[in-house]
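The material for today's practical consists of a large collection of protein records. Getting from the letters to the tokens is the skill we practise here. To make this concrete, we reproduce a full record directly below:
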Amino acid sequence: MSEKKHKYITTTLPYVNADPHIGFALELLQADTLARHWRYLGHEVFFSTGTDEHGQKIAQKADEEGKSRQEYTNHFANEFNNLKESLQLSNDAFIRTTSDSHKEAAQEMWRRCDANGDIYKKKYTGLYCVGCELFYKESELDENKCCTIHDHPVEEVEEENYFFKLSNYSEKLIELLSDESRVLPDWQRKWALEFVKGGLEDLSISRHISRMDWGVPVPNDDEQVMYVWFDALTNYISTLGWPNQSGDFQKFWLDGETVQLAGKDQVRFQSIIWQAMLLSANIPTTDVVFYHGFINSGGQKMSKSLGNVISPYELVKKYGTDATRYLLLRHVHPTDDSDVTWEKMDEWYTANLVNGIGNLVARVTKMAESYDAFPAKNPADDWLLENSCVRAPLDAFDFQNALNQVWKKIGDVDQQIQETQPFKLIKEDEKKAVELVQFMVDEVYRIAYELKPFMPATSNLIIEAIRDKKKPENLFARLEK
């Protein structure tokens, strides 16, 4: 990661055809953690998220429920926007693709790609997945002609659409994807690179209004609407006020460092199609795209039919906001698939929060109160930043290892209490016992400081209690049996 003063970070936009799930909550929390971390380091940060609200799936769902498309999307957009309060997110923008400003930006993106000679119209017959809203080659499907993501047969579709000359950008994409810093983890970069080297086909970027009427109108053609991905991907710059070249777009996209977070099923869209669109429109490509894995439950992919879908709102209701942040950031691997169940989360919560940091903070601050052993001065912020154990892992997008480093410190202080037993030593050597407890308070203060990007409320409670020289209320309640 560079040290540019301005940093821009964005999640993907979830499709508003279902309630939020913890897979997207993970992405939000990863982005929020980085945004907070960069702000503590002194960077000016623009953190964006939002909702993707056009396309065939949305239209079908709205029609099934007897609602207008806008009414349907408004409901789910609110469900996703409410995650800001529930998860204590620090995002600066929440973009909706049904907003007028975004639709105008999507049309401007179309016009610029068209002016560059990269859009043309033709009749086409192809294999279409409604779930992905994407045409596939037969070689990309399984033996039953099903999309490997949605496990559902594709449809053969014939119509006249506009196409984007994705094939024009093979060489530039190969050059971009050969840069090891542009895509993380590296195996996703290699997959994208091999995909491009295997040959790119031009991309259908519109749908006839008779088949799909819920989308951004194609400029100068009332019979076509934009393919949902061409529309939605433009959000990454429309949220910054583009096509206005000044203001946030100038500061964060042109002059700053740009980082996108996405799920591992997004590589084709984020690191190939979107980057080609930017190249066509003569806009700088994204500096870094980071891909996380999926969250499964009980060894199976989460699905409504299996009844194993876990809502982030359910997690917050049971464990609290900071505990939810902890569970997803430490116990879900940053890039590999992870398995999460309620039983596992109960164990992690009790062992590492109730009996871990919660118990440690209570013991140390209680001793400090009893022995009048709070230090007169706490470690300076500059020193804490310079000696942070989470800085290097976070610079590598390794959220799990960053928190492992913090919990190692928690374990070290716990072990020190067991070995030195200041509660006994106070009777034999009061001065030494007080010095020991003061050292432990400083260590707990440092631990709290390290937790700022991950568990901001918990961090603040501990820091304020130590500054006020008192034991805080219990940080994490025991689960009811």
Summary: Residues 342-370 form the longest helix (29 residues).
